[in-house]
């Protein structure tokens, strides 16, 4: 607490009084410490590839100057490190752009199917090398989302990329979507106005104790593995911010040794749900 005492001036004969102000600094300190941690994390994430680049430049100038075979290998590593820094900066910019818009809610009608099909086709070009198939299962009765189409594409892309990255070779990643049957407590819309979009993988799964922290910036279950697979540690933080800007929710279910399902709940156009028809026969 921060306490301030101020004497209040009274009229000549009036009893003098004082004003005591208590200010709870817990939240301010928490935000300040998060900011300091964030800057430290970003610096660390950038310093590692920069140090690697610096090391290879020195080697190419010195001991490996004449070794043409080494040049190719070193340039490839330098290229990977540069791409990693580019991805990090792109993710940081996305995050700050979304945070700046967090207090506004997107309001366009967005058809989910073309976005999903585009991402599935683009991902499968790369994932097929590891025998990973992308299956799509979207309820044809799903109404359009009330959303920002670029942001929803980014959510899908981050989730599908993770499912492939952390999925097993020769497995299937499934993207499915339907009107939500059950809603998490954090969603205040009616169930028939909410789409549940899931991305499931057949990967190693995530130990339960890590799940609540996965959407924190730079939180990784296995940092070395994430870096090796080209991760920035920001993908799920971006997903969380986009979903919360849409007044939706994210739920994560996972079984170690079996795989994980990430479900996003997003508002869809109310009143368009085609309910099953029941006909009396006879
Ligand atoms: P990264 O760039 O490291 O993948 P993310 O923010 O996308 O960062 O994910 C954070 C962490 O959550 C990952 O490092 C990984 O440990 C874990 N994770 C995310 N998606 C999955 C998944 N489908 N299966 C297993 N672990 C996952």
From TrEMBL:
GO cellular component: plasma membrane
Entry's Gene Ontology BP terms: cellular response to phosphate starvation
Name of the top EC class for this enzyme: transferase
A Gene Ontology molecular function term of the record: phosphoprotein phosphatase activity
Record keyword Secreted present: no
EC numbers, comma separated: 2.7.13.3
Domain annotation Histidine kinase: ranges: 41-270
Catalytic activity annotation: ATP + protein L-histidine = ADP + protein N-phospho-L-histidine
Keyword DNA repair tagged: no
Endpoints of the signal sequence: none
Keywords, in A-Z order: ATP-binding, Kinase, Membrane, Nucleotide-binding, Phosphoprotein, Transferase, Two-component regulatory system
Record protein name field: histidine kinase
Organism of derivation: Nisaea acidiphila
Section covered of the full-length record: 217 to 498 of 498
């Amino acid at each position: 607490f921060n306490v301030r005492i101020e004497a209040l001036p009274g009229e000549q004969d009036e009893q003098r009084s004082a004003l005591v102000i208590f200010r709870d600094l817990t939240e301010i300190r928490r935000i300040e410490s998060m900011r300091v941690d964030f800057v430290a994390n970003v610096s660390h994430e950038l310093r590692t590839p920069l140090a690697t680049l610096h090391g290879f430049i020195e080697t190419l100038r010195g001991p490996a100057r004449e070794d043409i075979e080494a040049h190719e290998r070193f340039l490839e590593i330098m290229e990977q490190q540069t791409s990693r820094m580019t991805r990090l900066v792109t993710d940081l910019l996305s995050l700050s752009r979304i945070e700046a818009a967090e207090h506004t809610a997107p309001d366009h009608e967005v058809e989910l199917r073309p976005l999903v099909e585009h991402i599935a086709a683009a991902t499968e070009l790369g994932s097929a090398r590891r025998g990973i198939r992308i299956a799509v299962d979207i309820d044809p009765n799903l109404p359009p989302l009330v959303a920002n189409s670029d942001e929803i594409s980014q959510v899908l892309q981050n989730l599908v990329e993770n499912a492939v990255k952390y999925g097993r070779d020769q497995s299937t990643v499934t993207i499915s979507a339907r009107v939500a049957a059950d809603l998490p407590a954090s969603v205040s819309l009616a169930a028939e106005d909410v789409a549940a979009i899931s991305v499931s993988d057949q990967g190693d799964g995530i130990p339960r104790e890590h799940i609540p922290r996965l959407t924190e910036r730079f939180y990784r279950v296995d940092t070395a593995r994430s870096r090796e697979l080209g991760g920035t540690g920001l993908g799920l933080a971006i997903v969380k911010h986009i979903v919360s800007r849409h007044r939706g929710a994210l739920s994560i279910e996972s079984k170690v040794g079996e795989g994980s399902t990430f479900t996003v709940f997003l508002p869809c156009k109310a009143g368009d749900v085609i309910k099953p028809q029941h006909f009396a026969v006879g």
